Amino acid sequence: MTATSRPALIVLGLGLGVLLIFPALADRYYLQLVTKIMLVAIFAISLDLLVGYVGLVSLGHAAFFGLAGYALALAQRHLDLVSLWTTLPLALVVSAAAAAVIGWLSLRTSGIYFIMITLAFGQMLYYLFNDYVALGGSDGMFVNTKPTVSVAGYDLLNLRNRTAFFYFVLGWLALSYALLVMLLRAPFGRVIAGIRVNEPRTRALGYPVQHYKLVAFVIAGTLAGLAGYLNAVQFGVVNPAMLGWRESGLVLMMVILGGMGTLFGPVLGAFVIVLLETWLEGLTEHWLLVFGVFVVAVVLFLPNGLAGLLVRPRPAAEPAEEKNGDG
Amino acid sequence: MAEPLLRTDGLRKSFGALHAVNGVSLAFDKGIVHAVIGPNGAGKSTLLNLLSGELTPSAGRITFAGRDITGLTPDRIARLGIGRSYQKTNVFPSFTCFENVRLAAQARLPSSMRFVGAADALSEVNEQAERALMACGLSGRRNAVASSVSYGEQRQLEIGMLLATQPSLLLLDEPLAGTGHEESRRVIELLQRLAGGHTIILIEHDMDAVFAVAGQLTVMVNGEVLETGTVEAVRRSRAVQDAYLGGGATP
């Protein structure tokens, strides 16, 4: 499993070490930037479960990211919910339920049609939130207060504190990553690998492949919701763009450029793309042109994405113990 | 006579005006290798696809172990104990041979929708996979990636995957298709070993293989059953000799 191969583990361990001491080194700007990158990384690994492991390319993944953010904003405005213990589960349930419905309908198709139908659902939600004033309209909505994290009246964590929020997001990234590694090593993970490699054969062995795909879709949507919730907390605002195709396309790019089906590749992809976007934006107004050159270069020279620099992705679920001719 | 393990009653599959399988009523007895032969286009593969659920019958009924399985999905039918192999090799090419049979063996779990615990650590599944690999003669190729082993070995692997699911009925669609001489000898030996303890429906063009392993024989022509019975009876049948086995010459 490439997600836990040795070079990947070394990079992950080093990365985690740097992140753990990062708040001591960084200024406010970079602390916020890296916090954002980490929550985007959760978004990216959630999509990698679909694209890299099940083989489902979704162009509507931002829908779940945005919905969870809106769930937080609406829960604050209309239900006066301020606690993490109520708003986070609510946001996750909203994302999961949306993923169940959209997945149930979309998974009747495959290939290019699946891409189109997920895109269509994402755009429908985008326009719903963009055009409906009660949902904030094109300006979006404010998330006025950070959720409280308290037990029996005692505040465990103050999310207004940037350093605390940094570690909060880092914790969720580590947890999400570990959760996906666990799923992929479990019997469930082997079945979805079978679906990616040869879906009809997997079905003929007795696996109800549609159920597996739907479960994967809901898990991915829920994790995307977690990222969207954190995003809304960090920036204190949600807007329709969070749900749109541009956001979906950007996260898909992180997965592909980073190296799909590796988990740590999309994390790298999130870092590289957000950092590049930020730096290039500051250097030149033609930054998208430079960014485009980078994308073309990676696609041409690193067919396995940035992760391919560290490991040669092996889709087989079994570690290579002996030298085999390569097919 | 005991109830057959699988029976079809008036099974029909039409594609527009073409009746690929037309009113087929057959009984497949437990413990018997039942070969289905016939010229190309006779409807043999369509029949197999109906039995495995990959196609839905236009009419008729399929009864397996006393249960109506007509119209069930392929995964349901597989879980009920009908395993199949394909005319075109159908394995997981990027998996190792072991992982191919392991995933097949895992399908026998009550549910694979398990999210915790490493799949590698399921010792019963691993043992079942090792047995299946041994049975199909590929223990030596355990860790070779499936796409890197020879074509004949891939055919063996597919049968190994089938065995790993411990089916009570095996549907084999031309297991010798595309194999060379030496490879086909190995696959025939494997079929002979299986013939002892399994109920098999075998579609095969290679008559040597059919006569080497089959107890029952059905001849299909144009989607219909021309003759069915014991191998000896069918070989003696006038209609079969005229239509298929070649102009009345007794082999």
What is the CATH T-level topology of chain A? ABC transporter involved in vitamin B12 uptake, BtuC
Structure summary, number of beta strands of chain B:
10
Query: What's the arrangement of strands in the largest beta sheet of chain A?
Result: 1-4
Beta fraction of the residues of chain A?
under 5%
Rounded to the nearest angstrom, the radius of gyration of chain B is: 18 Å
What would you report as the Rg of chain A, rounded to the nearest angstrom?
20 Å
- Tell me the series of helices and strands of chain B, N- to C-terminal: EEEHEEHEHHHEHEHEEHH
What is the quaternary state of this protein? heterodimer
Summarize, please.
The complex is a heterodimer of chains A (327) and B (251). By secondary structure, chain A is mainly α. Chain A is built from 11 helices and 4 strands; from the N terminus they run H-H-H-H-H-E-E-E-H-H-H-E-H-H-H.
How is the topology of this model organized?
The complex is a heterodimer of chains A (327) and B (251).
Chain A: H1 6-25, H2 28-54, H3 62-79, H4 84-106, H5 112-131, E1 141-142, E2 149-151, E3 154-157, H6 162-185, H7 187-204, H8 209-235, E4 237-238, H9 245-258, H10 264-283, H11 287-301
Chain B: E1 6-15, E2 18-28, E3 33-37, H1 44-51, E4 59-64, E5 67-68, H2 74-80, E6 82-84, H3 97-106, H4 123-135, H5 151-164, E7 169-173, H6 181-197, E8 199-203, H7 207-213, E9 216-221, E10 224-230, H8 231-236, H9 238-246
Parallel strand pairs in B: 3-8, 3-9, 6-7, 7-8
Antiparallel strand pairs in B: 1-2, 1-4, 4-5, 9-10
Helix pairs in contact in B: 3-4, 3-5, 4-5, 5-6
